[in-house]
Amino acid sequence: MRKAFICPTKYVQGEDEIRNLGYFVKTFGSSALLIAHPDDVSRVKEKLLITAKEYQISFVESGFKGECSRQEVARLQELAKEKGCHCTIGLGGGKAIDTAKCVAAGEALIIVPTIAATDAPTSHSAVLYTPDGAFDDYAYFKQSPSVILIDTTVIAQAPSRFLVSGMGDALSTYFEARATAASCSNVNAGLPCGFREGCCGPAKGTNTAMALASLCYQTLMEDGEKAKTACDCNQVTPALENIIETNILLSGLGFESAGLGGAHAIHDGLTIFEGTHKYFHGEKVAFGTLAQLVLENAPSKEIEEVLDFCLKIGLPVCLEDIGVDQFTAEELMEAANKACIPEESIHAMPFPVTPQSVAAAIITADRIGKNFKEKSRCGK
Questions:
Q1: What would the CATH number be for the domain defined by 10-157?
Q2: Where does the record place the Alcohol dehydrogenase iron-type/glycerol dehydrogenase GldA domain (predicted)?
Q3: Is residue 109 classed exposed, middle or buried when 0-12, 13-18 and 19+ CB atoms within 10 A define those classes?
Q4: Are 181 and 170 within 8 A, CB to CB?
């Protein structure tokens, strides 16, 4: 049996680490295309100036438009070529990071998250959206980023909603990995890379990846609430450091090398509802996780543990929590059909899945979440 595991070349996490960014740029050359939202650049401007001066490198600012779309990627690739950039930096949140991956296409890539809102930084994949924010497609590259550089001081200064969203994304990691292992499905780490015929190919997950996915869930349960409190206070604590690592490294390696399942596919389906577009990826994935647990008829105790965790840290537990207040039966089936297209990860579940069963799981998860939230309010 062929198995595969993929990971970045280097992962560095610590306080004020952006001051060392120039060192890593220098390993590629003297200039880097900086893909970042202007607000994120402003947040770390002083550190960027310090590292540029110390290591004698320059940053070419890109005027990033804020959406990882095919049009934006093409524009930035042309800019990098025009300016002669030696490497690409994705600095900021998931959209800037995924855009940088697409621009770099697997070469000379440095990722600098300023929030811990998704598990995107470590992976060799990206999510493309349409210019108006709807899901478009997945993209895969021949290798993971060269460097992941995480400044925990910067992440601690960001609104805690970003950290909570990252925990929502990480929450799905173990359950999707468990489903993938049970069905013996292929994982993203083994997808054909296109670099050389026969160099990759379909592969199953490793025991190592499953262990990381399990540790991901365990750490969320142990440190998630404490980390949110620390982030609310803009303080770096051991719990916050653990959750940053969980959101970015454990979840990133776990989803890519242990597999995706129903949660992310249901997230993709729910993007047909315009109301969901103002919510973060991880917030929607959290509800997708609940829907997956209903879909697989998970034990009530397990579902209640997930619901309790979500309520404690402020993650969605029902559709209205992600902006879906009203919908028709036809709209629900449209979302379910989108979640079940042939290339979606929902087919890694260890049983046949149909749009009808997905729609039923979404409706049931919504009702369970509403009831649990009401009971919690009443202290029952």
A1: 3.40.50.1970
A2: 8-152
A3: buried
A4: no
Tens-digit pLDDT profile for residues 296-306: 999 999 999 99
Please give the positions annotated as active site: 169, 264, 267, 281
Contacts of 61 (CB under 8 A, 6+ apart): 34, 36, 41
**What spatial distance separates the first Cα and last Cα of the chain, rounded to whole Å?**
49
**Does 95 count as an annotated binding residue?**
yes
Tokens of 325: 């207040």
160-379: CATH topology: Dehydroquinate synthase-like, alpha domain (1.20.1090)
The segment(s) of the chain belonging to CATH 3.40.50.1970 are 10-157
pLDDT at residue number 324:
97
- The token pair at 260 is 């995706």
d(CA 353, CA 348): 9
Does residue 29 have a known ligand-binding role?
A: no
CA distances (Å), 35 to each of 61, 66, 88, 119, 244, in order? 7, 10, 7, 18, 22
Q: State yes or no: 111 annotated in a binding site.
A: no
Q: Delimit the CATH 1.20.1090.10 region(s) of the chain.
A: 160-379
Strand 125-129, strand 135-140: pairing:
antiparallel
Q: How much is the average pLDDT of 166-195?
A: 89
**Binding site annotation covers 129?**
yes
The model's pTM: 0.91
Condensed to tens digits (0 to 9), the pLDDT of residues 6-37 reads 999 999 999 999 999 999 999 999 999 999 99
Q: Is the pLDDT of residue 199 over 60?
A: no
